[in-house]
Design the sequence.
């Protein structure tokens, strides 16, 4: 796809980023994509190019939004942190304090911090459930609350790929004084006031702006398969079907964020700037430190590499988020990535519609993030 027009803007000094973005198209690795960079919360790069549809008739423009799957999780984690900051939730208290039903079957001591760092032992519905429960948030939360943990909570991490949704949505709704959902809190308290084009769920009305996805050609490499990995990623009841009206409309804080690259980079800039965004303190420094401290590290029961988990975001011990081990971030199914470097006060976001099997980013992202670090 050499000759693809690269649109958007790129501040002086970031020309290697534009070249890397163009190189991904020249290598025929993209249909449509966007990439953004902020420093100290200011957007310095927002590039986009290619097509928002698979038939290549609709150009990807600055208003194109795209589902970013698990790149959503750290944005949901910011909303939980805001509730902690308000004294409505507490990372170190049992989740059952706000959600009494959750105490069933030996889960009374599981803390919010353990749930946010994938230690709760509830990574999947191991036994079959009615997939229709994913369309009934209250019933889904009740079902999860009734389960025994799969492993002893606090002893290991196992990526809660989709169960992260009720584990965040339910305490967020219960803690909010007006009973608002996590996605509504995000919209009303952060994104709408600051003009950030990102939403968790509530995207059905934006269907004309949403890029159409080309699914990956192969499954991701999970290493040696186990029953737990199969339950998390391969069961027909393990999550809602993506790209359906239900997926667009309902809120899944684990996975159904929709936004532009600039919006995602802006939200991740909170992680690059000590909890601040555009001069406003989104979370206090003390709560930011609690959000971003490593709560468990080592081999994962679900993902095929060691992970340093904070309260909803990972620290870059594996090098998948760029060269700085202090970087924080998360990838989403298909290749999207959000990354924040607190040492450089830098954040980046990459989104696309040609999905890759890579579990966190891929060669396209690696080329882009390497170019960013050439420039800073």
Sequence:
């Amino acid at each position: 796809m050499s000759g693809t027009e690269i649109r958007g803007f790129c501040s002086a000094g970031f020309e290697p980023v534009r070249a890397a973005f163009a190189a991904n198209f020249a290598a025929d690795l993209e249909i449509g994509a966007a990439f953004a960079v902020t420093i100290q919360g200011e957007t310095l790069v927002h590039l986009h190019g290619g097509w928002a549809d698979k038939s290549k008739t609709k150009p990807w423009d600055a208003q194109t939004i795209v589902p970013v799957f698990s790149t959503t999780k750290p944005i949901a984690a910011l909303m939980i942190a805001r509730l902690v900051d308000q004294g409505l939730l507490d990372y170190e208290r049992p989740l059952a304090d706000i959600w009494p039903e959750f105490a069933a079957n030996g889960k009374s001591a599981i803390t919010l911090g353990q749930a946010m760092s994938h230690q709760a032992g509830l990574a999947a519905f191991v036994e079959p459930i009615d997939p229709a429960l994913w369309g009934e948030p209250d019933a889904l939360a009740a079902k999860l609350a009734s389960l025994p943990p799969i492993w002893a909570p606090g002893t290991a991490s196992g990526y809660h790929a989709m169960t992260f949704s009720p584990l965040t949505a339910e305490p967020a709704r219960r803690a909010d004084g007006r009973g608002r959902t996590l996605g509504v809190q995000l919209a009303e308290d952060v994104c709408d006031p600051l003009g950030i084009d990102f939403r968790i769920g509530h995207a059905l009305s934006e269907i004309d702006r949403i890029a159409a996805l080309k699914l990956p050609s192969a499954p991701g490499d999970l290493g040696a398969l186990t029953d737990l990995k199969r339950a998390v990623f391969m069961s027909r009841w393990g999550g809602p079907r993506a790209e359906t009206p239900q997926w667009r409309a309902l809120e899944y804080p684990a996975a159904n964020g929709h936004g532009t690259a600039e919006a995602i980079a802006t939200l991740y800039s909170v992680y690059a700037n000590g909890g601040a965004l555009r001069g406003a303190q989104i979370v206090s420094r003390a709560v930011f430190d609690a959000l971003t401290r490593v709560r468990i590290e080592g081999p994962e029961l679900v993902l095929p590499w060691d992970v340093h988990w904070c309260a909803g975001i990972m620290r870059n011990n594996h090098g998948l988020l760029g060269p700085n081990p202090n970087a924080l971030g998360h990838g989403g199914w298909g290749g999207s990535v959000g990354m924040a470097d607190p040492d450089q006060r830098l954040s980046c976001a990459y989104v696309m519609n040609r999905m890759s099997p890579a579990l966190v980013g891929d060669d396209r992202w690696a080329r882009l993030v390497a170019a960013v670090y050439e420039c800073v």
Q: What stands out?
A: The chain has a mean pLDDT of 96. The first helix runs from residue 15 to 26. The chain has one domain: 6-78+181-375. Residues 6-78+181-375 form a domain with the Beta-lactamase fold (CATH 3.40.710.10).
